[in-house]
Amino acid sequence: MSEKKIRVGIVGASGYSGEELLRLLLRHPYAELTCITSRQNAGKPVGNVFPRYMECPLQFIAPDADAIASLCDYVFLALPHGLATEFAIPLLQKGLKVLDISADFRIRDPEIYAKYYKETHPAPELLKEAVYGLPEVYRKQIAQASLIACPGCYPTSILLPGTALLRAGLVTAQRIEAISLSGVSGAGRKVADAYIFPECNESVRPYGIVGHRHLPEIEQELAVAAGLPSVVINFIPHLIPVNRGIHTCLMLEAKEGCNADTALECLHAAYDAEPFVRVLPKGALADTKHVTMTNMCEIGVAYDERTNRLIVSSAIDNLTKGAAGQAVQDMNILAGFEETAGLL
Q1: Is 153 annotated in the active site?
Q2: Which is the catalytic residue, given 35, 72, 150, 153?
């Protein structure tokens, strides 16, 4: 093992995001995967659960903070919301770097968290410590952090184009609408009627169109970009019959002088130096097939002169740039590695 390698663990490695972390970390040049946990699969070789990794010698262990801390320097929490905090607290106390893929630390206001997640946050003091893990916006803060709140998949697809345009003052913070479509893996690996093949196949349907749990995270970061106390938007997610990928149409009220050309100039200035954002030529729109299985966000722009609306098209892979890949990108920044390590 190279002296540069760090020991890395995944808590909750049997879900879709956990499996994606396995895929990325097993090939990472500077990370040694030393610990994977799953209550259901404890004691099983990883190849028994994911046959594509049959040659991997790792076994799942039961999630225990002391055991995890003895094996790892960095830990990814790929758990449902509400469960991540119980591991984050002891692991942080033991000096580990924690990257949380759940929603437990994304929202800075504990009252807003309680409103949308229907429970009191168990560690509100950590909300002030956590850094929102959108590298293109918070790279300097990520490099100094111990706790990273990795962004949600829908928010990533909205915030990458939206924050750049708001910061540049090209669009207003009023009448923002985001219509997003997600593959079924975004719902997680669970058995539920709404997500089984006969219900999803040949079906496109909206859900959570009022009060979706990603809404406060999106509004929080858009408000920061706009320099306002708050921003209110409409967010309308849909489920579509594909395994992975998210496409978002973001509709914004253009200010005077804003059109497709000026918006593209803004986005190129913001992201041409970024390894994982691709701004498309004028007239081109984003397509999920160009980004699945990658850590890339693709962005295209159109301007409707009749309605004075800027229409932004963005696409990401919900499991990579929307979850595990972005978390590995954050780890690379935190550890001082090349930001693209293990992700190209």
Answers
A1: yes
A2: 153
